[in-house]
Every structure is written in structure tokens, then in C-alpha cells.
Amino acid sequence: xxxPQERRAAGAIDTTLKAHGFSPERVRGGAQVYTGSxxxxxxxxxxxLEVVDVHFRRPPKVQVVDPDLRDRLRAHLTPDGLCYxxxxxxxxxxxxxxxxxxxxxxxxRETLDLLLHGNPRADLEREFVAYWKAEELLxxxxxxxxxxxxxxxxxxxxxxxxxxxxxxxxxxxxxxxxGTPIPVTVVRTLxxxxxxxxxxxxxxxxxxxxxxxEGGFLENGVFDDLFAxxxxxDAILIVDAPxxxxxxxxxxxxxPRRAFRQGGPRLLAWAQEHEEQFALKRLEIVDLDTASIxxxxxxxxxxxxxxxxxxxxxxxxxxxLADLLVRGGAGLGGxxxxxxxxxxxxxxxxxxxxxxxxxxxxxxxxxxxxxxxRFHPDAxxxxxxxxxxxxxxxxxxxxxxxxxxxxxAVALALNQLLVHERGLGRKAPVAVHAAVHGDGxxxxxxxxxxxxxxxYKCMRPGHGRPYGAxxxxxxxxxxxxxxxxxxxxxxxxxxxxPAMAAALAAQSVLEWAGNPAxxxxxxxxxxxxxxxxxxxxxxxxxxxxxxxxxxxxxx
Length: 555
Fold this sequence. Notes:
Largest sheet: 7 strands, mixed, barrel
Distance between the termini: 74 Å
Strand content: 15-25%
Oligomer: single chain
Structural class: alpha/beta
CATH class of the largest domain: Alpha Beta
Number of helices: 16
Helix content: 25-40%
Number of domains: 3
Number of strands: 20
Radius of gyration: 31 Å
Low-confidence stretches: none
Mean pLDDT: 87
CATH topology of the largest domain: Rossmann fold
Strand order of the largest sheet: 7-9-8-10-11-12-13
């Protein structure tokens, strides 16, 4: 039963559509269906419009009534009708339902103008994989640019098993060791895949061959080389093109027993004469390679993939930071992500840590390595269960080190070490220090990348208090709760504070990696408890006179 607001919206939609020549056809399953037309140039296009949601969380479905016109359009046609709005990006005001449906009609008209009077070839190519209308998913964890022989194995997952394509002898979690892998061949074409009138992929081997060869995507000799595997081994063919990848597998609908029993040349000869009896199964490729996963929602490839990154401290901040860094590309481009921490995970750590109950009692770094490799098996993550200063040779060649300990003693010692190395003219990692201040009042990061800006000690000249960037209003709220003797005290605050510190540090290092010469503000502060946090602007600070670290004094 509709609410009063929904009834008002439905009434506004009805009034608006009728005013623009649309007639109500019926109400089906709660959806309002209208028929009418829009003009595109001199062309009058008959449409059926189904309002499935008066809140416009889903835009109305639009069907082109004339089948001949549907064949002319081709681009932007899906099983649900005309695709005229970018899913999740087109915004309609549900409080102005009449205006929202008018905006839908305007978007439909603009799409029709493009398809009927413009040049939709670019859209056809860009959307080709969507028009492929795949019947099954095929996961693929192949390196970028991979061509040649691969194999499809059964991937056991809790929700549903599926096939995953891997390079030969490549390991992957949860693979079914039973059965013979399905052969896969990956071929590349430099021409974008498309469908021309009269030349479509079809539903059988003969039509598929004709489309690939006559369309100029593959030479006939290349396809002949693939033919035996396709016929004899039910092999999967993946075509890699600039506008996406598609998969094809063929099965015999009928074959003479004599030909099948003879196999080899006799079967191949019969198959070449009866290619139409090999039915095409269309496969949608779901890329799981590191570059596709990391860069799927980025404008430019992640700069972290080319860097060696070290994280010192894998506690509440460092655990989440390591997770964000891997998702941002660290450890996924051949360079390692180093995790450094000598401690084990204790039960009292769980409330603020990214790790769960199963990791209690384990070294934090080892448990984090397993966790990150569960996210992506290709992650190159190294656990170093040691104090950072004791294992300096193992991470001195890193490009960037993130201090996630949140403590001044470690931070100042790391700062002294790195500043000293630069003072001697040696390469030293850029450092990002991340910490929670007060009782979770604010979080702050400090980037130290050279002698032209403040180092960590410059920012904290006395007793560790930030100089010019104090994130707390006096009096400083700080509650220490004593633990059992030897266990040390702790400061109570919620998991949101270290999560924000990790996110701020990850953003700082991403911006530095993307533009080392101008990485944005080197000191960044975010308030959590606004009433206790000082209003600070993110900025760069100059070197403080008489800084003992910058003057290379002894600790």
C-alpha cells in the first residue's frame, strides 16, 4: 500500500506524462505503464514507459515499440530496454516527481538523437561487452597483456563455485584439485570489438569464426591454429581487445559416433564441415588480476604499485593502514609491502584492530600477511616480527615508511635515523607519521620528505607537543587507564579514531607518490571531538631553528 507521499508522486507523474501525450496503459505489479512518442529530428519514436519506482531510485524502463527501429538503434539497448541514464549517477528529485519524469524523457530524447542522427559507433564499441549478453561468469587472474595458453580450474567459494583462469602452474586459494583443467587460449586483437549489420558473433562456431575473421579481429590462419583445441578439448577462447575481453566456449549439439570415436584428423575434418553444430556459450570475463582490481576506479594507475612501502607498527592504526595500502596498490606491482612489529595480538586489542578472534596469540605481522593475501593472493607482503630500529637494513631501501606506532619515542628515533641518512647524502625513505591525539579527540599525520620542510622533531620540539600544530584545545583531555603490572596503560577511545588516522596517512602517501615534488600539505589534522579539537589548517611548516635532528645532534 502506497504512502501519501507516494500517491502524490504517482499523481504528479501521471499528470506530467499525460500532458506530454502519453496514455496510461495499465498498472502491472504496482508499476505504471504508459505509451506515447518522442520526436527525434523528423523521426517519431513510439515508446512504452514503465514507472517502476515513484521514488526514482530506479529510473523508468523505456522500450522502443517498433522492432525495425530497435534493430537500427542497437547501441544502448539492453534486455530491460533503452539505456538512457548512467546507473547510480543520474539524480532525480523524488519530491518533484513530475520534474523527474520530464528529465527522464529529456535523457531519452538525447539518447535517441545520438543513435538516430549522430555517430553511435564509439558507444557501440565502448558498450560491446555489455551487449555480449554472457550466459556465465568466468573469473580470470591473468597478468596484464597475457596471451597464449592458460587453464581454467574450479574455484571453490562459499556462495557458488565457478571457473577461474590462471597461467599454467599458478597457485590460487581454494582450487579444486580434482579433475583435469580446461585448456584456455588468450588471443589479442588491436581492433575494438564491435558488431556490424549482417556480421554478428552469432550462436555457433561458424558464425563466430566469420565475425572474428571478416570483422578483421583475427586472421583466418590464427583461428585455424585454435580450431583443434576448441573442437577436441572443449577449450575456452578469450579474445582480448582494447574495449574489453570476451570468452567463448563451444559444445557439440550432435556428432556422428564414428567421427567422435575416430577423433583426431577425422573429427577435425568433420567439424570443419559442420561448424554450425558447435553451439557457442558466451562467457563474461571478471578480471581479478592486480592491476584491474587496484585501478578499476582510478583515473590513473596507482603510483603505489611501483614503490616499496614499509609500515612500522601493525596495531589499531597500522593494521587498517596496511589494508588500505594493499587496496591502493602497495605490494601488488612486484615491489613488497613490509610489515614491521614485534608484538602479538592480544584479546584486548580486538576492539580497535582490523584482525579478528582467530588471530589472538599470533604475531600481528604474520596474521596481517595472511589477511592481506586473502584479499588478493598476488599481494607481495613480508612480515618482519622485529623492532624497526633493529631491522633497519631490511627496510632502508624502501621508498616510504609509515610510522603507525602512534608513540613519540619510536617516531623520534625513526626521524633521527632518516634525517641523519639524508644529511650524509644517502637515500632514505620518505616518512609519514600517523597518530591519535588525546582521548581520540583528533588525528594527525606528518610527512617528512627532505630538508626543505619541517622534520618530525621540528614539529615536536619539547616533550612531544606539536609546535604550531597542536590539535588539542587546552586543557588537554587525556585519560590513561592502568593495566596489570608490566602490561602498560592504555588510552580509551573508539575504533573510529585509528581508522581515521589510517585513512589520513594513506591519503597522504598516495598524494606524495602521485606527485613527490608537490605532495600537498605535509601536516594534516582531522578533528573527531570538535569541542576539544583546535581548528587547524592543513599546511607545510618550515624547518625550526636549532632543531637537534636537523642539526644531526645525538639523541
